[in-house]
Design brief:
Layout (H helix, E strand, L loop, with lengths): L1 H13 L2 H4 L2 E10 L2 E10 L10 E10 L2 E11 L4 E10 L2 E7 L8 E6 L1 E12 L5 E16 L4 E18 L5 E13 L10 E13 L1
Antiparallel strand pairs: 1-4, 1-12, 2-3, 3-6, 4-5, 5-8, 6-7, 8-9, 9-10, 10-11, 11-12
Length: about 210
């Protein structure tokens, strides 16, 4: 998907001047939902000769908080209704881990860690109508990279998304400023947590777009 975004940008540079006039760029504030990051218990393995079950030292439960972020978009129109764009999003959610059921009866504690999440990808949009208010549907994919443990640990994975939104264009003519609202579902092959599974997260965004 990263190669697809690079290829799209290269195509954009090579387009004739008439098509380049359909380039648009924008930026949005985003919100990404949190999720249950799973549970894990710490055991002490007993002497195998006794046949006793493992001793539970403590249990942990984790959750990833929702997070605000920023996103930049760069795209161009293939036709009046179809456009393609590359996007890059950054957010910093908080991972909370609660330690409980301590064998020595220590009080429960909660550890917090800030995760830095990067998402780069490409999206195809289909626009309805040609008035000031233009709804659209969208779908695409991307590359997810998350840093945690003081940036010492890295998780990477693939992402696909689908959703929709609308543009509200201010003024008339080719060169226009517009308001943009997005809502989509982001499905991620990997994400930080004790359970290695695909997670589906709602994402919403609001920002500005300028059509050159």
């Amino acid at each position: 998907m990263t190669r697809a975004v690079i290829l799209s940008l290269a195509m954009l540079v090579s387009l004739p001047s008439a098509a380049v006039a359909q380039v648009y760029a924008g930026g949005s504030l985003t919100w990404t939902s949190g999720y249950d990051a799973g549970d894990l218990s710490a055991f002490e393995t007993p002497n195998s000769s006794t046949g006793a079950p493992p001793l539970t030292l403590f249990t942990t439960s984790s959750k990833m908080g929702s997070a605000a972020g920023v996103e930049a978009q760069l795209g161009f129109y293939l036709s009046r209704r179809v456009s393609v764009e590359g996007h890059f999003r950054v957010s910093r959610p908080m991972l909370e881990t609660r330690v409980d059921d301590d064998y020595e009866n220590a009080d429960p504690t909660t550890a917090e860690e800030t995760v830095t999440s990067y998402l780069a990808g490409g999206t195809v949009l289909y626009h309805f109508g040609r008035s000031a208010l233009v709804p659209f549907v969208s779908g695409g994919g991307g590359y997810l990279r998350e840093l945690h443990a003081d940036n010492a640990a890295v998780l990477t994975g693939a992402e696909i998304h689908a959703g929709g939104g609308l543009h509200y264009w201010l003024g008339k003519g080719r060169h226009r400023l517009g308001l943009r609202l997005d809502a989509q579902v982001s499905s991620r092959s990997k994400s930080i947590g004790f359970e290695d599974k695909r997670r589906v997260l709602p994402v919403v965004g609001a920002g500005l777009t300028y059509r050159f």
